[in-house]
Amino acid sequence: MKRRNFFKFGLVAGALSLVKPLKGATLIGQSFEEKANGPIVVSTWIHGMEANKAAWEVLSKGGKAIDAVEKGVRVTENDLTNRSVGIGGRPDRDGHVTLDACIMDERSRCGSVAFLEGIKHPISVARAVMEKTQHVMLVGGGAHKFAVENGFEAAKTPLPEVKKEWQEWKKENKDLFKKPEINHENHDTIGMIAMDVNGDFSGACTTSGWAYKLHGRVGDSPIIGAGLFIDNEVGAATATGLGEAIIRIAGSHTVVELMRHGYSPLEACKEAVNRIIKKHDDLTGLQCCFLAIDKQGNIGSYSVYNGFNYALKTNSEEKMVDAGFNRNW
Ligand code: SD4
Predict the structure, then answer these.
(1) Phi, psi angle pair for 71, to nearest 5°
(2) 16-48, pLDDT tens digit by residue?
(3) In terms of C-beta density within 10 A (0-12 exposed, 13-18 middle, 19 or more buried), how is residue 210 classed?
(4) For the whole prediction, is pTM greater than 0.70?
(5) DSSP secondary-structure letter at 87?
(6) Structural contact between residues 39 and 196, judged by C-beta atoms closer than 8 angstroms
(7) pLDDT tier at 82 (50, 70, 90 boundaries)?
C-alpha cells in the first residue's frame, strides 16, 4: 500500500496557498488516495472498522466479494447502539423505523429493500430479493411479507430508548422537516465496497436513513446507482450523506461512469461532489460523500464538507482514512 500523488497534490496545494488561502480544499501533504494489491474492503465511517473485519474473514480466505460485503454490513446492522443503521436506528417522525438496503455483485445482479420495518437484517433480505426473485426492489409491506416468508428474523422497533428520545424530539420539533446536521450521527449509513482475490467487485449499503424523516421517505441507500453501483469492468462506488442530493445526480453510478472514462476514484468522487454543489443554492447541512475503488486497486473518496472518513482493510493495512472535501463547515 502506498499513497499516490502525494507530491503532486502537495505542490499544487502549496502553489495555490501562495495565491489565496485554501478554503477546505486539499490539505497539503494529504493525497486522499490509496492503492492496494490483492483483496480490498472499504466502508463508510468508523463503524466500518468492525464491519471490515468480518468482511475480511471472507476475503482473506479467497472468498467472494458478495459474501464479504453481506457479512460485513451485517455487523453494523447487528449493533443495537447504532442509531442510523438497522433496528437500533432512529424512527421517522411518526415513530416508525424504516430501513433501506441494497446489494450488487460482479455480474451486475442486484437486490434492494426500502421502507422495510421490523426485520433485523435488511441487507440479507436485499440479497434474497436478488437471488430468489425476478425483481430488484421490494418495499414496505411487500418487502416485510417476503422477509417473513423467507424466514428472516423479525424485531420490534423502535428500541425503547430510541422511542423515548423520539418522543422528546417530537415535543420540541413541531416544524415539518428540520434540516439534518452535518456529520451528525443521524447520517451514518454503512456503504461497503470490496474487491476479492479474483478482482471481482461487490457492494452493500444499509441504513435507517434520515432520522425523523417524513413517513414514507426513501433515501439513496437502497437505490442502485445512487447509494451503490458496481460495474465489474470498471470498479465500485458507494455514497453516504443526504440521500436526496445523491439521487439527483445518480451519484454512485456517476462515479463509476467517470472512472470508466479515465477519472481516478478520487477525481470521480470529486466531480460527483462538485455536481451536487453546483445544483444546490443552499449547502447548509448538505453533506454528501462518495467512496470508490477502481479495477487497478486505486481507492479515493471525497465529500462536500470535511469530517467524512472511511475504513480500509487490505493485506497490509487496517485503518481509517480521511476523505478529501470541498469546504469546511
Ligand atoms: C439517506 N444516505 O437515507 C442516507 C443516510 C446516510 O450517512 O447516508 N447517512 O439519505
Answers:
(1) -60, -40
(2) 333 333 333 344 446 678 888 899 999 999 999
(3) buried
(4) yes
(5) G
(6) yes
(7) very high
Q: What is the pLDDT of residues 212-236, one digit of tens each?
A: 999 999 999 999 999 999 999 999 9
User: For residue 186, what pLDDT is reported?
Assistant: 44
Residues sharing a CB contact under 8 Å with residue 20, sequence separation 6 or more, in sequence order:
none
Give the DSSP H/E element, type plus range, for residue 294: strand 288-294
For the CA atoms of the chain, what is the radius of gyration? 19
Is the CB of 188 inside a 6 Å radius of any atom of ligand 1?
yes
Q: Which CATH class is domain 35-327?
A: alpha beta
61 residue type, one letter: K
Ligand 1 centroid, distance to 74 Cα (angstroms): 17
Q: Where are the domains of the chain?
A: 35-327
Q: How far is the CA of 21 from the centre of ligand 1 (A)?
A: 32
pLDDT at 159 over 90: yes
Q: What does the pLDDT look like over 162-199, one tens digit per residue?
A: 999 999 988 887 665 666 555 554 458 999 999 999 99
Query: Contact at 8 Å (CB) between 100 and 222?
Result: yes
In terms of DSSP H, where are the helices of the chain?
6-19, 48-59, 65-78, 122-132, 140-149, 160-172, 243-248, 251-260, 265-278
Dist CA 314 CA 181 (whole Å): 32
Q: Is the CB of 220 under 6 A from ligand 1?
A: yes
Angle at 53 between CA 49 and CA 55, to 5 degrees: 115
Pocket flag, ligand 1, residue 303 (CB < 6 Å): no
d(CA 133, CA 285): 38
Strands 298-305 and 288-294: antiparallel
Q: Is 314 a catalytic residue?
A: no
Q: What's the gap in Å between 188 CA and the centre of ligand 1?
A: 6
The CA-based angle 249-304-116, given to 5 degrees, is 60
Q: Which amino acid residue places its CA nearest to atom 3 of ligand 1?
A: 209
Tell me which amino acid residue 35 is. Answer: K
Residue 221 Cβ < 6 Å to ligand 1: yes
Quick one: cell of 298?
486505486
